[in-house]
Amino acid sequence: MPKAAKPKANNAKSSSNPLDARSPNARKKSAASKGSKGSKETTSSSNRDPDPTSASEHNATPAENTQTVSNPPPATRPDDDLNYLLHVMDVLTSNPMITRLLSVPPSLTFDQLHQALQSAFGWSNSHMHSFRVEIDNPSGSQEPSFPKTVLTLQSPHSLEESGLGREIVDESKWTLRDVIEKEEWEGQLVVSKADLQITYEYDMGDGWEHQIQLLGRAEKGLHAALTGLPEKKAQKVLCVSGEGHPCAEDCGSEPGWEELKKAFTKPKGDRESKKWYKNVCANGDRKGLDPWKWDLMDVNAALEKIKA
Question: pTM score, two decimals?
């Protein structure tokens, strides 16, 4: 398995598969359905006149000074062409944990990031998904606290009210820069980039959660070095390294995935599970399953289709 050295960082559709497509383990339980979560925030901004005593400042109505979270705020820092380095982990997997290290431009929208994650992790894009942005330790508090959800993003055709009055925003209108470089959420400061957590959940039934960690910025020339092309012609979204074979669709979450791996790693493994994976599973393989095997070149060939 080709694996590139970890680069230095300078600081930085929705239809589920038919029931009979589920694995034998998954069919033993009903698919859990998680309600969509969301959050709604408003940020106030004053449209001040150059003259501080201007009547327009004193007579502005609340509606004029309120911007909803459905549209992202302007970037709070100057544009930077250096890519973000994102370490992404499928946290329900182990031995090995499925991970990918991605280099992506700050201008990448969350719908494009969804496409990238589908390609990088070998999913078949056959279930709903969402992104959740959380702040751990808001405003530098020393008191123990649970992460606070400040933003939830979904695809345009999946947008809906959660029933709790919280808004789910259009992922195609927000870029990574909009989220990562934002210094304040709902009046609370992001003291450290390490306190900002982004989670990508795919398949609300099996509940595959991918934690996205910002490592920093990719060094200039990384993509040229890895692709052999001039930097301006090199693909913008790139997988640098990773570990683990793509997880099987509709296998029944973590327990089903573990049972499926056992079926292929033990000489007398469950024949029914093997047959299902080879012939029915949406992202299965007729050659079988090696939990450690994956192909970096195949992943990058798929990522090259994303025009960021």
Answer: 0.74
